[in-house]
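thread: overnight batch results

M.L. [08:02]
morning all. the overnight job finished for the chain we discussed friday. pasting input first so we're all looking at the same thing
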Amino acid sequence: MHCYVGRPMRHSFWILFALSACHAVPSGDGSPSGRTAQRAGSRQDDATRWRAVSAGSNHTCAIDEYGRLWCWGKNDRGALGDGTMTTRTTPTQVGEESAWTAVSAGFDYTCGIRYYEGGFGTLWCWGPMDGVSSATEPRRIA
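M.L. [08:03]
and the structure it wrote out:
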């Protein structure tokens, strides 16, 4: 099935609609191939499976089948959580953790829940934290 799901769009609804119709996550290169994102070092035919996806205004984040968190899109205020303010057109892993269970991308920030032994989750956020400064990597909130 071919469909066009390119770079993160302005309206989250259309991204989610396109994802449900294509069963694919945006490739990030704007191509109409309907390809799913590839993990670094993976074979070309080894497509990533996704557990969850959340689209913000200018960025998107998703959790893969192993619980790793990936983000891509506009990053001028740290919304991708990769330690930089560099815009990414392909999924970039957030840290090295593999216990993410939920993610929510906002206007220019992101929050996620990481599983913690004992059955509890911990809340992490990044991007503009106080309206003045930005966290470019996840910070534990609760």
